[in-house]
Amino acid sequence: MYLQSLQKLCLIALLLPGLSWAGQVYVSNEKDDTVSVIDLDSLEVVDTWLVGDRPRGIILSKDQKYLYICASESDTIQILDRATGQIVGELPSGEDPEQFILHPNGDWLYAANEDDALLTVIDIPGRKVITQIDVGLEPEGVGISPDGNTLIVTSETSNMAHWIDTRTNENIHNSLVDARPRDAKFTADGKQLWVSAEIGGTVSVFDANSREEIKKIHFSPKGVHADKVQPVGIRLTENGKYAFVALGPSNHVAIVDQQTLEVLDYLLVGRRVWQITMTPDEKMLFTTNGVSGDVSVIDVDRLKVIKSIKVGRFPWGVAIADE
Amino acid sequence: MLACSMSLLLSFFVNANSQINELKVGVLVQSPEIPSAVPDYLKPNEGEGLAGALQAAKDSNRTGKFLGLGINLNMAQLDDQQALISQAKEWMADGVQILLVDADTQALLALRKALPEELILINTGNREDSLRTETCLANTLHTAASFSMQTDALAQWLRSRRLSEVMLVKGDSESDKKYAEAVKASLKKFGHKLVAEKSWSFDTDLRRVAGKELQAFTQGPEYDLVWVADTRNLFGQLLPYNTFLPRPVVGTHGLEAGEWSQVIEAWGAVQMQNRFFKDNQRPMTARDYNAWIAIRALSEAMTKTRSTQGAELLAAMLHPGFYIAGYKGRKLSFRPWSGQLRQPVPLFNQQALVATAPFEGFLHPRNEMDTLGADRRESRCTLASQE
């Protein structure tokens, strides 16, 4: 009797995936104007939600109730209720928002406006723009230090990482990196900043205090022409062990030792891999593969690709909720 | 203490920004001679090339302001060779060190001869191969792709599609002849067969009778495709769908090969296309792109050297480690022997990007992009000594 009702419950949960509170992976599909919902247990697409035009950056709210989605061509950031899959509001984003990041306080959002060479600072509870900061051409990747005091925005055509003090919203430093910087990430201890350069083919690691470059990491997966090695998304494990770097059209993800800054291995994933996100327990890594239209799942303990999941056209961003 | 060091840093950057070290660049465009028989919709846009340079200066100065570097443009479009020379001299007297030139071969040679060698030229429009192989110009770079880069790109595509028997149809202008020579060399280089060669020199109004006339004209032996050499748009646009055998048309019309087209959207290009359209109310053309990439290369060299000295910038651009990002998905660089910009060559029609050369399988010991156009051993030029 008990078993039966449990089965029924499971059935209901399967039929109403939007209501299930198991862990879920959300993938924005740039050319389909949708978000694919993947169940973290079954690793299958359980739902597809229609969102604004050209969805790219996608992140979770601090309480994990909402998804914020950069609908680039709708010139807005949409707020989506995870429980219902419905758009419940919008945030003013400036024109053509591409990537963004949440301040650790959960209230401030920093969005790069690619077409306007601006960084927009948004107050989420008030749903208003706090300020816009002048940055280099085609701002793209945004990263924030764990203490929330330092924000980094990379500009793709100016080849710079701009350092911004979030307490004053002033640009305090500019570091030149290789061509077309795409992503910026601080290590969990806040001591290092990693910046990927897509056309340069490198990742620059900076000392976050002195703002000096410590090392430039180069990549050479076997059998791939150097020009096709185009680093984009970076993920650093919180335990300080690994860094994962998506290498674009080389169709590989590099595994880097966070301590020695040496490349350990390369994993073959889908075609043109751009963004990567890890589950909060750091056991699984999801990559978006734009050209093959799928997501590769990597088992972090075994460092193996365990599955690829078909999603929409041109998957771009990925966010993961563990409950 | 913290606040103090912060304000020091801030003032440092304010200082750096307020003193902009400027590089003066001239942009010279020779007004193209357009026969009246060319339909209006195929005539070049007003200010083509100049608009690209302007866009790049805007783009570059946004980066430059963080470094205290800037590019200052002087621009002119003139008809006459003599007027081009005197304009260049006037600018030089005013401190211009770099000159972008889009002109025919005669005018380009005359300019190089009339101006001192320390003035660096960047050719943004002339495709003639001899300027990269025989007539080597001092301190001159080329961002315009040569005819042979265009024809090699198409010849590689023919290989990838297993098409090899070619009927060549050429116009009678000087540049049509130069283009046709490049076609023949590419056919040989990539093992294709020229089965027929025809010259179009008629001056009838084709508009109502294109089907009849061109079908009759393209009769001959069996062919896989028609390759058209009509650099002036006098008849080539009427060839696709009007060939005697229903075969593809490639070359100056049909499937084209060039540096740029509005159909290119990948590799982040859509951002620049949008930026350009917003400012100019028209799409960016290849001549705009060639000027754009020339200024971007200068800007990149300025960032690398923190210098605004022409000679230092030229050396930096020819340095083996130098590269620029040009929305083409690969690093672009200059061939040290001829000063030619190495670049992927997109193949496109009016509505879509079809493919991008170099194609997989065409290998090169140094750089696959050097399978397009004159390689080192095919050129007598030695612009830079180091590789």
UniProtKB/TrEMBL annotation, chain A:
<dbReference type="InterPro" id="IPR011045">
    <property type="entry name" value="N2O_reductase_N"/>
</dbReference>
<dbReference type="InterPro" id="IPR048433">
    <property type="entry name" value="YNCE-like_beta-prop"/>
</dbReference>
<dbReference type="InterPro" id="IPR022456">
    <property type="entry name" value="PQQ_b_propeller"/>
</dbReference>
<feature type="domain" description="YNCE-like beta-propeller">
    <location>
        <begin position="17"/>
        <end position="322"/>
    </location>
</feature>
<keyword id="KW-0732">Signal</keyword>
<protein>
    <submittedName>
        <fullName>YVTN family beta-propeller repeat protein</fullName>
    </submittedName>
</protein>
<dbReference type="InterPro" id="IPR011964">
    <property type="entry name" value="YVTN_b-propeller_repeat"/>
</dbReference>
<feature type="signal peptide">
    <location>
        <begin position="1"/>
        <end position="22"/>
    </location>
</feature>
<dbReference type="InterPro" id="IPR015943">
    <property type="entry name" value="WD40/YVTN_repeat-like_dom_sf"/>
</dbReference>
<dbReference type="Pfam" id="PF21783">
    <property type="entry name" value="YNCE"/>
</dbReference>
<dbReference type="InterPro" id="IPR051200">
    <property type="entry name" value="Host-pathogen_enzymatic-act"/>
</dbReference>
